[in-house]
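How a chain folds remains the central question behind the approach discussed here. The record that follows shows the chain in one-letter code together with its fold in token form:
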Amino acid sequence: MDNANKAEQTANPTPIVLEGIVRQLCLNAVYNRTRMVLAPHILYMRGGSLYVDAQVVSRDFIIPREEKIGTFKLDGLKGLALTERPFAISRLFEPEAEKYATAT
């Protein structure tokens, strides 16, 4: 394992995701070997693990046909980096959803 991969695995991704949420900036990430640009909306705990719900802006450089909010386990997001690409909160995002009631 080279130093870049080791640093990637040991770095704490939480501050990057939180900064993206607060500043409404997209994130670059690799999830299940797929390059993605994500618009993070909320970070929360479920079953002892951190998850982020985010709009998928692009997947392998292709814009999705329809807008969707996906749930991503934070541990599964690799190569996480903040971009300068702003986003608006999706109309699909429901902050009052039951799954966030005791999890955030």
Observations:
- The chain has one domain: 3-100.
- The CA atoms of residues 8 and 79 lie 6 Å apart.
